[in-house]
Amino acid sequence: MSQAQKNSLMILLLCMSTITVMAAEEDHARKIEYAFYPPAPLRQSQADAGEKSAGCNSCHTASDAANMHQSPSVVLGCTDCHGGSADVVKPEGTDTGEDYAAARDRAHVLPLYPKSWHYPSSANPQRSYTLLNRESREFIRFV
Q1: How many helices (H) and strands (E) does the chain have?
Q2: What is the pLDDT along the chain (143 residues), one digit of tens a residue?
Q3: Do 120 and 96 form a contact (C-beta atoms < 8 A)?
Q4: In whole angstroms, what is the distance from residue 66 CA to residue 41 CA?
Q5: CA 133, CA 120: separation in Å to the nearest integer?
Q6: Helix (H, G, I), strand (E, B), or coil: what is residue 125?
Q7: Which residues contact 8 (CB under 8 A, 6 or more apart)?
Q8: Alpha-helix residue ranges (DSSP H) falling in 108-143
Q9: Taking the model in full, what pTM does it have?
Q10: 63-73 as b/e, with b when 16 or more CB fall inside 10 Å?
């Protein structure tokens, strides 16, 4: 066997071992029983919509508008569109730590494949087409 053939074989074996490691680290679906998130109502008061956004607005402050809809004729709370739990509020005086993470996870709709989404990062992965096909309807609605 020539040196070039040996080098080619070595490269092939390295590639195969890399693929094996990547397959071993594949994300597996978690078992999650999602709460029922009703569809957005046809009509509601601004106060009702505000209740459905209260907990969300306790964390999502500077980066997001209190109401994502410019038209006053659209009266929706955050959970009307996204699901989740608007009654969970940010723990007082913290943006990190176990209490904050627990509140965040109770408020949000969690993904079935957290490693694939790099959860808890808020950045969605690029080219997530096939990942979306595997995810739950509840999480897709939330995103």
Answers
A1: 8, 0
A2: 777 666 665 666 565 544 434 433 578 899 999 999 999 999 999 999 999 999 999 988 876 666 677 788 889 999 999 999 999 999 988 888 899 999 999 999 999 998 888 877 777 788 888 889 999 999 999 98
A3: no
A4: 19
A5: 20
A6: coil
A7: none
A8: 114-117, 129-134, 137-142
A9: 0.72
A10: eeeebeeeeee
